[in-house]
Amino acid sequence: MAGLEVLFSCVSSAIARPQDVVVCFVHWEAVKNGYKCLGTGDEPRDDDKKSELLPAGWNTSGELYTLRYRSNDDKSTLLFKAITVDSTLIFNVMDSATEQISDLTVNVSDYIDAQHLHDFERVFKNTEDLANKVKSKLLPQVKGESSKKAKKSERDPLVDTQRDDPLRIPTRTPSSSRQPNWSDPLAPFAAGGAGLDPFGGRAGGMIVDPLRAGFPRPGFDPSHGVLPPGAVPPGARFDPFGPVGRRRPGPDPDHMPPPGYDDMFM
Known about the structure:
Distance between the termini: 106 Å
Helix content: 10-25%
Radius of gyration: 41 Å
Largest sheet: 5 strands, antiparallel
Shape: rod-shaped
Number of helices: 7
Order of helices and strands: HHEEEEEHHHHH
Strand order of the largest sheet: 1-2-3-4-5
Structural class: alpha+beta
Number of strands: 5
């Protein structure tokens, strides 16, 4: 409640009824939320000057309070009215920039001790509840403040929870639903990937033989007993299943019988 005691001391001598104290409190909340008071009355005046204090004659009527406010960035002007109805105060605020109207009804006895109108330490009750009502239901947010709150609300609460939870086990699911784009079509475990996703940008698969797709890979020749790196664990015994060589796979002329030879058992 920093600043409220100073404001209350400045207007204490003019306070004549509990409604005056409520208006003083609401004025303090308006100042805290980025507004300054211009003066009394419905119409602007030539001598209007922004101030954190209440203007002279702010509570002359006792039944109707009319004040004007302007935001610190000069982009919004508020017309503030409060009407006394029995033991309640009905507040009405109109924002001239947006023409939006907000209202709030306050039961004065819930927040003001009428027996101690000039004692700051004892006159207020339930100030936190009253402050929340004024900010949420009556005062429009200054654009700078509202944008900060909007950015904060845009944060994903699930992401924040996962980031702040030290006991969370990281998920095994990739952050993107799209499969990684393997640059090497002959990489281990890539077999069949291009066939399952023919539009994923990977060559090979069922459309083109990866060994003849224009990606030469010296040393990788399955028909000559050479496997891709990583296929054989370190230290494991491996017997080549064909003659070791570095020729590209394909038909071997020695596999064909001599011309005119027709013996199937030779």
